[in-house]
Design goal:
The structure holds 2 protein chains of 2 kinds. Chain A is an alpha/beta fold. Chain A has 5 helices and 6 strands; from the N terminus they run H-E-E-H-E-H-H-E-H-E-E. Chain B has helices at residues 3-17, 145-148, 188-192; strands at 21-23, 28-41, 55-67, 73-84, 87-103, 106-114, 150-161, 168-180, 195-196, 201-213, 219-228, 232-239, 243-251, 254-265, 268-284, 291-307, 312-323, 333-344, 349-359, 377-388. Classes of the chains: A alpha/beta, B mainly beta.
């Protein structure tokens, strides 16, 4: 009984302490000077509230059109559903405050675009191949 | 009857393409949306529609073109077809501007630009962006959209990063000229009393806004003030049985402060806003005694919304406006309790349903379409469908 309880407590602790950000990678074009990025920075960049990282690097967010990686990213960093997230971007576009970020169907296409576009920043699953892009560590 | 075919064509066209057309080679984006509303009221007709019989006279269609030729420069144009009862039925320019953003701390827009006062002024005509069919009319009257949402001139904006424990401060400062056309809802009461500004009015404006994004995530407190210089404009007054006379109307400068706050946490959003709009207008017709009209509007609302599921959102607000210069009675105030819901079928298509319980007649009702006189209370039901891409 004690063993079962111990296993349960360890499992619960591991679940609570696991960093959910580990499921995604924040990637950027190698031209971006920064090597790390905070959760608040990611939220501001991808919600249109900011276009510069703290070191002054100008960045342009790139989105996935749908999928589990997209949903998990929005849930973790933005705190919105996909519909609410896109509605907030439309609000920025129609009020003249922003340009809609480019969206891609696949993570491979995102990696390809980010690798060849100065300033581009995006998110992919940790398991997705990511040659040619820079990984921004979480702060 | 032209509006129904227009709305149908626009909706079908928008649904057909149903995705943003990004002209990558030219770095140009095209976006748009269209909505069709249906109004039904008990008692009074509202917004110059025959709503007591049920009215579909509420159609909007918007097309937006944005180009970003360089990292810091963005050019955007947005046109709108708007029809609400006797208002609009024309294509107008929401804005046409260039935006040069040096960095997050400083940017500037110029041309015809959105006026960033209050909590929702920049976004109040963007139906796909929010839950409500009608934003609180006490502060965002739909019958004055073309006049009060934008101006010719510029806006400077930016975000100042404060120490982490204090949060961030967003600022906007604006100046230029605002035009109010003669058929705007702003002049409805004057028109019904026989006084018309045939050329409308154009006035210099200036203002500033601060949004403090507090250290508490999702909590923002803000304030803005707008100065309207106003002045003297040509006016005519029609006196039944005597004819129409030419004269002038002189309106005193107005300062409009607005205070607002919003709190967003995952599925919950709370917001509130207060404003005061005092002014005095003097109508002078040669050989007739001057008429002085003084208004002192105090307006506020509180709202709450909750995302029940990823596709379903529901909310409630209470919106009130009082004219402290009007005698006691239903014409002195308007109190509007609202229940609202929105369902997103997918990221392009949505529907809204909203119920208003309006007490008082201080705004939204005209006497031409209510010839039997205004009743003190009205229930308004709104159904709306929209598509955006």
């Amino acid at each position: 009984m004690k063993l079962a309880l111990t296993i349960f407590l360890f499992a619960a602790a591991a679940t609570l302490l696991a960093h959910p950000a580990a499921a995604q990678l924040i990637i950027a074009n190698p031209s971006v000077k920064a090597s790390d990025v905070s959760k608040a920075d990611v939220r501001d960049i991808f919600s249109g509230a900011a276009s510069n990282l703290k070191d002054g690097s100008h960045v342009t967010p790139i989105l996935l059109k749908a999928g589990t990686t997209n949903d998990a990213f929005l849930d973790l960093y933005i705190g919105k559903s996909d519909a609410a997230f896109r509605a907030s971007w439309r609000s920025l576009v129609f009020s003249g405050q922003a340009t809609m970020p480019r969206s891609f169907e696949s993570e491979a296409a995102v990696v390809e675009y980010v690798a060849h576009t100065p300033g581009a920043i995006a998110y992919i699953a940790k398991t997705t191949p990511h040659e040619g892009v820079k990984i921004l560590a979480g702060k | 009857m032209k509006r129904l075919p227009i709305a149908t064509i626009v909706l079908l066209f928008a649904a057909r393409i149903a995705s943003a057309q990004s002209l990558d080679d030219l770095n140009i984006q095209i976006h748009g949306y269209a909505t069709q509303g249906f109004l039904y009221t008990t008692q009074n007709n509202i917004f110059t529609t025959n709503s007591s019989d049920g009215s579909p006279a509420w159609t909007e269609a918007v097309v937006n073109l944005t180009s970003q030729p360089s990292e810091k420069l963005r050019i955007a144009v947005q046109a709108r077809y708007f029809l609400l009862g006797n208002y609009g039925n024309a294509i107008t320019l929401d804005y046409a501007m260039a935006d040069y953003k040096v960095n997050d701390r400083f940017g500037i827009r110029f041309g015809k630009v959105k006026t960033p006062s209050g909590l929702f002024n920049e976004t109040s005509d963007i139906d796909p962006a929010y839950l409500w069919s009608l934003l609180p009319q006490s502060i965002y009257p739909i019958t004055s959209r073309n006049s009060f949402l934008s101006h010719y001139g510029g806006v400077a904006y930016g975000t100042l990063t404060l120490p982490p424990k204090i949060g961030k401060l967003e600022y906007r400062a604006w100046g230029g000229e605002r035009s109010i056309s003669s058929d705007d809802g702003y002049f409805l009461a004057e028109r019904e009393q026989g006084a018309v500004l045939p050329n409308g009015t154009a006035t210099a404006i200036a203002g500033a806004a601060l949004h403090w994004k507090t250290p508490l995530p999702g909590f923002m407190i803000g304030a803005s003030i707008n100065h309207d210089a106003l002045g003297t404009d040509a006016a005519t007054e029609t006196i039944p049985g005597y004819g129409t006379f030419n004269g002038t109307v002189t309106t005193s400068a107005a300062y409009e402060p607005q205070f607002f706050a919003v709190y967003e946490k995952t599925r919950l959003t709370l917001a509130g806003e207060y404003t005061r709009s005092p002014t005095t207008a003097v109508l002078q017709i040669p050989y007739l005694p001057s008429q002085v009209v003084t208004v002192d509007y105090r307006s506020w609302y509180g709202m709450a919304s909750y995302k029940v599921t990823p596709k379903l959102t529901a909310g409630v607000y209470d919106s009130q406006i009082f004219n402290r210069q009007t005698a006691l009675g239903p014409a002195r105030f308007s109190k509007d309790w609202v229940l609202s819901t929105r369902y997103d079928f997918n990221q392009f298509l949505y529907a809204k349903a909203e119920q208003h319980f309006i007490d008082g007649t201080a705004q939204d009702f005209d006497t031409d379409l209510n010839p039997g006189g205004l009743k003190p209370s009205t229930k308004l039901t709104i159904l709306k469908v929209g598509v955006s891409f």
